[in-house]
Amino acid sequence: xxxxxxxxxxxxxxxxxxxxxxxxxxxxxxxxxxxxxxxxxxxxxxxxxxxxxxxxxxxxxxxxxxxxxxxxxxxxxxxxxxxxxxxxxxxxxxxxxxxxxxxxxxxxxxxxxxxxxxxxxxxxxxxxxxxxxxxxxxxxxxxxxxxxxxxxxxxxxxxxxxxxxxxxxxxxxxxxxxxxxxxxxx
Length: 186
What we know:
By secondary structure, this protein is of the alpha+beta class. It has helices at 13-26, 46-51, 91-110, 115-154, 161-184; strands at 2-9, 30-34, 38-43, 60-70, 73-82. A five-stranded antiparallel sheet has the order 1-5-4-3-2, covered by helices on one side. A hairpin with a 2-residue loop joins strand 4 and strand 5. The two termini are 22 Å apart.
């Protein structure tokens, strides 16, 4: 998922760059590239997507571009690349990503940052993701048992285990997708 924010700020460029680096380092990012036009920060890992429900541990890349308009007047653009599980983005994850991007502009423009609020929101998102997984697993397993049982009644032979496993996995993913989409519309 990509998010782009932009804003204008009037400040000395050295102080501006220093503030940007401090903000991202406090948030757990690592500066991986810097040049006269901007910076690139990285946080998390792809394995975090697979083994953690906390979006702070997921792979995230932020590309910062600093465009000079005139003396001590800069446009700042932050292009966020949040890695998510396929195309399944819950409302809680979307809220977290929006707060994460808004925190940057708020911190740089107004010197306000509430790290605890973002950490609490990440924890809430993590708990929500666990609920989605447990619910979709339960619904998916029950639905797949019914589907496999129905197919076995229609067939003379039993359904191969590999095919039954594929059906179960597909139904669990479908259940997860439907739960995420239905919850997002409330």
